[in-house]
Amino acid sequence: MSLFSFLGTLEIGLIFGLVAIGVYLTFRVLDFPDLTVDGSFTMGAAIAAAMIVSGINPYIATVCAVIGGAAAGMVTAWLNLRFNILHLLASILTMTALYTINLRIMGKPNVALIMEPTVLSPFEALGLSNMYLKLIFVAVVVVMIGLAIAYFLNTQYGMGMRATGANPRMAQANGIVIKQKIYAGLALSNGLVALAGALFAQTNGFADSTMGIGTIVVGLAAVIVGESLFGSRSMLVIIFSCIIGSLLYRLAVSVALNADFLGFTTSDLNLITALLVGLALIVPHIRREQKARKAAALGGEA
Amino acid sequence: MISCKDIKVTFNAGLATEKRALRGVDLEIPQGEFVTVIGSNGAGKSTLLNTIAGDISASSGRLLFDAWDVTKVSAAGRTADVARVFQDPLAGTCGNMTVEENMALAYGRGKRGGLLPALNDDLRVLFREQLKRLNLGLENRLDAEMGLLSGGQRQSVSLLMSALQPSKILLLDEHTAALDPKTAALVMDITDQIVEEKKLTVMMVTHSMRQALDHGTRTIMMHEGKVMFDLKGSERSNYEVKDLLNLFAKARGDGEELDDDKLLLGA
Questions:
Q1: In chain A, at which end, N or C, are there fewer CB atoms within 10 A of the end residue's CB?
Q2: Is residue B129 one of the residues assigned to a domain?
Q3: Alpha-carbon distance B16 to B152, whole Å?
Q4: Which CATH number characterizes residue B59's domain?
Q5: pLDDT tens digits, one per residue of A125-158
Q6: Which CATH architecture is the domain A3-301 placed in?
Q7: Which residues of B touch A170 (CB under 8 A)?
Q8: How far apart are alpha carbons B62 and B186 in whole angstroms?
């Protein structure tokens, strides 16, 4: 792997760390499997790209992208909470609708951002090479957001969100309005994913209507890889294990694609992802089974 | 304190499975009274408790806490006044959160959840003090995951949690039923202490006649969705378990001894 592609891998891994945090918030914190992210990632990219091309400040464009993603998350929450549509199905509906909406936002299947100003433009005067600048910028943003989310999950509001997912009846008995927490959680999660999309579009120079496909699996892969490496209860460790999980996942994919003897090509990406997520799920399960068997055998002797 | 005015609850109204769980309950519970509620399965005890908690909304009638009409207020909205402990020890706490996090959640009951950290050292001192009362050694396990505790330990913590914030009403739904006799006695003991300390208005549903008479200041018996018998004062203190069993038998309309009084006597 060349230095260039290694840095590129890190950068994309970091950006998808935001997706992993978003997925962690819905799947793990709220226990609300949300597939909206496939659409909100693209939406973030589409809004940012469309606004930048029409001459709007990239920072304003990025904020709008986050708001758009948050709104998409709230639509999913609304479908589920107001009309009792199964959470998975509600999120698939929103995701499907977003595909069309994203095409409308861009007005065409893809928008190029080469030569356009981006959130990076103000820092170009620093004289760093573009490759390092992008990586450092993304790393700073992702670490700051990781810290903020970890702090948030330890506040009264954030803890109420965790209780909502873990034990809604208990949450309610302690005065937590669970619907409000689900709305807020889905908005936050999809807002983060849209931010990832907006950053991805600006660092890679394009937005494409199909770029969000498989976002959910990548996010989930990062969460699971992170979880299987760090078994901590600390929110800070958990959030950063999402980011590290995302980096490791990207590196693993990149190694698999670069190792000639494996014979994979870029088009095999989805199979590799499925295999990696599968492994990350299967290995802990087998370990638990072995542990239980050993414990049972020991108990038999005693 | 709690006034139920002709409260009716009907499940699946208009369907073949229609169930009239409460058929007009009128009940006045003054401030500081500890009411024990008995009755056979399906009599409406839990429905009454859940209606007061707000999990179930009344089909008709009115419910007031003092002058506050809570008939249409959500369960979460009532928690400024109401604390509760569930029958299932797993229901009252979050298994994947730590002991101190669970207590912090309960500490925030009835307040607006803000963006300040839910835990701090002052709170930990308070939680440790409270946990010491249990004599279970939990004061040294604040950061243990709740799921690692036994059912009895979890139920004891739930009970402490219900008293962390001042509230006026405590609702106990057979909160010792899932515990072994020794733990049940401990939990009941702490219940009495807390009620005494905080001068709470309490409603406790129980299956145990013994418990119903030994604790509290008033006993009501539910039957087919109505309050069938209301015992208080000196009349109550003269009552024995067998008198209650006779009442049960009368309620069933056959006047005979119950053949399942073991179940009713309980621990």
A1: C
A2: no
A3: 40
A4: 3.40.50.300
A5: 888 888 899 999 999 999 999 999 999 999 999 9
A6: Orthogonal Bundle (1.10)
A7: 86, 91-94, 105
A8: 36
